[in-house]
Amino acid sequence: MKILLTGSSGFIGSALKRLLEEKGIEVVPFDIKDNPLDDVRDFSALQSKVLGIDGIIHLAAVSRVKIAHENPLECVNTNIGGIINVLESARLLRTDNNNPWVIFGSSREVYGESAILPVNESSIRKAINIYGVSKLSGEELCKVYSENYGLKVRVLRFSNVYTGKNDHLDRVIPKFILQAFNEEDLIINGTGEEIFDFTYIDDTIQGIWCCIQEIERNNHLFDDFNLSTGIPISLKQLADTIIKKTRSKSTVEHTKPRSYDVNKFYANPSKAIKILGFLPKVTLNEGIALSIAELKRESS
Ligand SMILES: NC(=O)c1ccc[n+]([C@@H]2O[C@H](COP(=O)([O-])OP(=O)(O)OC[C@H]3O[C@@H](n4cnc5c(N)ncnc54)[C@H](O)[C@@H]3O)[C@@H](O)[C@H]2O)c1
């Protein structure tokens, strides 16, 4: 099997690339970080890489809510421009014998501030920030390409994927761990009652692998899945757990919440478990311990 992987040098993309290569899959990398010409906003650049592929996994994006909020035009151009170019490249490759598929890396952010938790795939999607709107638009484009052009597409909604040293170190789990190591205050933007559904990187990439096998096996055109754990934790509990596990003297401080942040989210992963065989294995306690160990090794 040959797969084009956009965002192949990012946090999730690089871990996924390793896993796919271990499985014997030929991965065609595509990331602007490695080659300025590998830009998902450039349709011809994508088209030049898709020949002979079985599918595209599209992870390249402006991937952070804060960065998207500060750079809305870049977010829309990359995230909406990127997915339409990916879908169109796949559509133009179609022949009677070949129907390349697309797996789109979407986000929990499409649900916005849901009134009913946990969300599932039928919950109302009502994004509240520019990043969420860009992913929601991407999902709608996926659906239209599937319904109107017969393209096989799966939407995977990731939820706060984390690890230690390979994560973005300013994301909440590695950031709290590093602050705890240094006995600095752990800063929460808000009251601490904010609820998250954290997924360890190994579980997320296993989920994507399950989805590749499912889309290869099944003929139906479109489906969407939440790749989450279904287990909520508040930011206050998270901060307390990290302080305890690192035996730190840090305390928790609060700043004003950000207007564009979703305050409460967790998602039921039953559909992904049932249809994809997705099985999140790493508990948050285990994942935090692994992340602490990685960051400790890195800083010593
Ligand atoms: N990490 C998470 O918790 C999380 C949660 C929900 C959704 N997602 C989504 O999953 C995907 C991967 O996330 P990540 O955490 O690995 O992000 P990341 O920022 O680490 O990786 C994204 C990669 O895309 C590349 N990229 C950006 N713009 C590009 C362009 N114009 N052309 C080509 N490449 C470009 C970057 O160089 C980077 O390597 C993203 O689409 C993100 O929105 C991630």
Features:
six-stranded parallel beta sheet; 300 residues; alpha/beta; Rossmann fold; 10 helices; binds nicotinamide-adenine-dinucleotide; 42% helix; globular; single chain
Structure report:
By secondary structure, the chain is of the alpha/beta class. It has one domain: NAD(P)-binding Rossmann-like Domain (Rossmann fold, 3-Layer(aba) Sandwich). It has ten helices and twelve strands. The chain has helices at 11-22, 43-47, 65-70, 72-93, 130-149, 172-181, 201-217, 235-245, 270-276, 284-299; strands at 2-6, 26-30, 55-58, 101-107, 153-158, 161-162, 186-189, 195-196, 199-200, 222-227, 233-234, 252-255. Helix 1 links the parallel strand 1 and strand 2 (26-30). The radius of gyration is 19 Å and the shape is globular. It binds nicotinamide-adenine-dinucleotide.
Question: Quick gist of this model?
Answer:
This protein has helices at 11-22, 43-47, 65-70, 72-93, 130-149, 172-181, 201-217, 235-245, 270-276, 284-299, and strands spanning 2-6, 26-30, 55-58, 101-107, 153-158, 161-162, 186-189, 195-196, 199-200, 222-227, 233-234, 252-255. The protein has 300 residues and is of the alpha/beta class.
Bound molecules: nicotinamide-adenine-dinucleotide
Q: Major beta sheet, specifics?
A: 6 strands, parallel
CATH superfamily: NAD(P)-binding Rossmann-like Domain
Summed up, the domain count is 1
CATH class: Alpha Beta
CATH fold-level name: Rossmann fold
CATH architecture: 3-Layer(aba) Sandwich
**N- to C-terminal distance:** 41 Å
